[in-house]
Specification:
The chain is an alpha+beta fold. Helices cover about 20% and strands about 40% of the residues. The chain is built from three helices and nine strands. Helix 1 (about 15-20) packs across helix 2. It is globular.
Length: about 170
């Protein structure tokens, strides 16, 4: 697993655009994980970790299977810190973990993606995702407030959890 920390200068026009729209940010970050321009990107997770309006700095954290290629970002406005880690060393069987999650749950039917709208279906989606990773859901609090969901993403298909408690299962 690989963890990347991008420190962004929001005075740059493209960075400001991405910070204002999570879909634009996702598209920009995905370019770092596409092996070829027309190829789909490898899977990755990201979150906007901090945004300081006084300094114009934003911090984005990215988890991926390998390092990204960040040469498409404006070098004068981005600082990149990267490190590899073993996720198995972070969680032991029986351990409980808490984290926040902002997700856009989807299901695929006949090659198309569809948003998951019902809260119970969103919870079922989350349980399936966690079980694939060897974890079980113990408690979840779903919210739809603007502090958790970006205003540009405030759609009914969003699952916002704060905090989320899970228990790691044996491999």
């Amino acid at each position: 697993m690989h963890l990347t920390q991008l420190t962004l200068d929001s005075r740059h026009t493209a960075i400001r655009r991405d910070l204002g729209n999570a879909y634009d940010m996702h598209r920009t970050l995905a370019r770092a994980f596409a092996t070829q321009p027309d190829a789909p990107p490898e899977r990755f997770l990201w979150r906007l970790d901090a945004l300081d309006a006084l300094t114009g700095r934003a911090v984005v954290l990215i988890q991926s299977n390998g390092p990204g290629v960040w040469n498409h970002l404006p070098t004068s406005s981005v600082q990149v810190r990267e490190k590899s880690f073993d996720p198995a060393s972070l969680a032991q069987p029986g351990q409980r973990c808490q984290f926040r999650l902002l997700a856009n749950p989807t299901v695929s039917r006949q090659g198309k993606r569809y948003g998951v709208w019902e809260e119970t279906a969103q919870r079922d989606w989350l349980v399936r995702q966690l079980s694939q990773a060897g974890a079980t859901l113990h408690d979840v609090e779903c919210t739809r407030n603007e502090r958790c969901c970006c205003a540009s993403l405030a759609k009914p298909s969003l699952l916002c959890c704060a905090p989320l408690a899970l228990k790691v299962s044996s491999p």
